[in-house]
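task queued by scheduler; priority normal; single chain, no ligands, no partner chains; default sampling; output format set to C-alpha cells
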Amino acid sequence: MCVFCEIIHGREKGFIIRRENGFTAFLDRFPLSPGHTLVVPDSHFQDYLNAPDEVLKELSVFTKKIAIATKEAMRADGVRIGTNVGSSAGQVIFHLHVHVIPAYEDPPQDFRPRREINSEVAQEISQRISKAYSILFSDQS
C-alpha cells in the first residue's frame, strides 16, 4: 500500500491539517518551504491524469481553501500550487497529490528545504493551518 494511503488510514504518522468530503490535507515530511502541504483524495488514483473529472473538480476546490488557509496561517506572500505526473516529472509517491507551497519575499533564514520536518514544528504548523481553515471556512464546510 502507498504511504499516502497509510497516512490517510492512520497506519502511518502524518500531520493532518484537515479531512473533508473524501480528501485529506497534511504536511509534507520533506518540505520545500515552511507550511508545505499536500492535498490528496482519500481514494487511490495514481496521478492527475488517472483521476475522474469529478474528483479533480472537488480536489481543486479543497486545494484552493487549503491554499488560502496556508497562506494566511504562514503569513506567506504567495503560494505555489502544482502536481507532478510520472517519475520524469518529479512524482515520487504514486498517489495523486497537489503541493501547496507557501512563497516568501524574504524566506525564513533558518529553514533548510527538503530536510525531514521536526515533529514539534510540524505539529505547531499543522495546528496553525487547521485553525486558519476553521476560521476562514467555518460556515462553508
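post-processing summary
- The chain has one domain: 3-132.
- Residues 39 and 47 are 12 Å apart (CA to CA).
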